[in-house]
Amino acid sequence: MKFKDIIGNTEVKEYLTKSIKQKNILHSYLFLGTESIGKLLIAKEFARKILCLENGEDTCNCKSCICFNSSNHPDFYVINEEDKIKVDTIKNLAEKVIEKPIISSKKVYIINNCEKMNKEAQNALLKTLEEPPEFIVIILISSNENAILNTIKSRCMTVKFKNIDNNLLKDYAINVLGYENISDNILKSFYGSIGKAIKQKEFREKYTDIDMLISNLDKKDIIDILLEGKILYDKENIYDILDYITVCLYSKFSEKYINCMKYVNKCADRIRGNSNFDMSIDQLLFQMWEELNENGNRS
Fold this sequence. Notes:
Blueprint: H1 10-21, E1 28-32, H2 39-51, H3 63-69, E2 76-79, H4 87-96, E3 107-111, H5 119-130, E4 136-142, H6 150-153, E5 157-160, H7 166-175, H8 184-189, H9 194-200, H10 204-215, H11 222-228, H12 238-250, H13 255-272, H14 277-293
Parallel strand pairs: 1-4, 1-5, 2-3, 3-4
Helix pairs in contact: 1-2, 4-5, 10-12, 12-13, 13-14
């Protein structure tokens, strides 16, 4: 996807384009920013421009760009693991980087969600970052800077991505993704991320029901709340759901609703700790209902 087709982060795109034009390409970059904000898309287009045999223009049809656009470029590699990035994967990378490029003058490696590397894997990568071959460019991508060793960060050019402006995101959601109505809570729940906007489109009805559930916490009996709260029984997407509940609570601008946010955090912690899922959700609903319906002061 060309830079012009990727919304947001104009300054980042301008910086990378300028680096290409001035032939000032560094050996290692660290792209930091909110999850699913477009870092990987921009990294891939940056890689295409680096590998291009001509000028890196959008319409280029050189051999490198043709291979790249067909996902068949021998000098381009992406590590994009769903789980942990194993040390063996990084060691294999270290063995491959010393091989000279086949088509282009450089080779580009992207490690997406590089925070998934444990300390051993990061230390294995460090050796490559310390003495990279002259033709190597490594782009690390992360949404969790704290999980990356300082020794790794010190050897990379850090490029920080900003959350996408809500107006841009709203226009994209309506005109490209096909959203019909976007409430303020839905927009806030995107957290400036186009990836979240794409993911949440299929949950529009559920999120509308969650809005209603939160609005009824101080109006309905606890039995009704527990019954309606069964829409939260979704293990696969629970953390997105809890994030959205937090947005709904915060939008109420009331101390009691703000207090309820701590129960959401505790619920997330219980689920991460492998507590009984349904009981954790029920406990969350009861605690929020109790917070909003008590008449006396909490001791």
